[in-house]
Structures are given as C-alpha cells and as structure tokens.
Amino acid sequence: MRKQSRKPFDRSTIPDDLCPIATEGFLLRTGDWRAERPVVDRDKCVKCATCWMYCPTQCVVEKPKWFEANLDVCKGCGVCAQECPRHAITMIEEAEV
C-alpha cells in the first residue's frame, strides 16, 4: 500500500459557523424584495402539494385544507403558480407599505 503524499485533512480547523446561509431560511427574509406574491384560491386548492414540491425557497406551508406561502421567505418567483395543476395560485403585484 502506498503512503499518502500529504497528511489527511484536519476538520477540527474549520469553524462551526463557516456557512450558516440557508440553514435557517426565516432569518434571511428574502420576501422583503418581492415584486409579486402568490395568492391561493382556497376553493380550487385540493392539497396536491405540487406547489410545495416545486417551491425553490421551500416557503410553502401546509394549512388544514390548503397550502399557502410564508411571505417572509417567498421571493415571488411564481413557480408555484406555474406548476399548480388546478390553477389555484395567482401572482398579484405587491403593494408598497
């Protein structure tokens, strides 16, 4: 068996907080710069979870009879509305506060 040319990597030298991004999404508040927001038509939603599955920011949360977006995290990309097979999600322009 050949010897390694370098010493094995020492993981103890890596700080514990090296890359905290995306570990706790609610801290990022990516919804602050959204131009459009998703609105769920609760009568059309059949809880198929397609929106939940395709959401790139994982902001879709389950309610007792429908899904809706956590607007603190939602970027307004519209993927949920585009993928919804029942067309239960529409994107509306965000109003300034």
User: Major sheet: order of its strands?
Assistant: 1-4
CATH architecture of the domain at 30-93: 2-Layer Sandwich
SSE pattern, N- to C-terminal: EHEEHE
- In DSSP terms (H or I, runs of 4 or more residues), the helix count works out at 2
Q: How many strand elements? A: 4
Which outline best applies? elongated
CATH topology name of the domain at 30-93: Alpha-Beta Plaits
* Low-confidence spans: none
Query: Helical content, roughly?
Result: 10-25%
| Ends distance | 68 Å
Q: How would a crystallographer describe the biggest sheet?
A: 2 strands, antiparallel
Average pLDDT number: 83
Radius of gyration: 20 Å
Task: Estimate the strand proportion.
Answer: 15-25%
CATH class of the domain at 30-93: Alpha Beta
Secondary-structure-based class equals alpha+beta
Can you walk me through this structure?
- With 97 residues, this protein is an alpha+beta fold.
- The chain has a domain at 30-93: Alpha-Beta Plaits (2-Layer Sandwich), CATH 3.30.70.20.
- The chain is built from 2 helices and 4 strands; from the N terminus they run E-H-E-E-H-E.
- The chain has helices at residues 50-54, 79-83; strands at 36-40, 60-62, 67-69, 89-93.
- The protein has a two-stranded antiparallel ribbon with strand order 1-4.
- Strand 2 and strand 3 (67-69) form a beta hairpin.
- It starts with 35 loop residues before the first strand and ends with a strand.
- The mean pLDDT is 83.
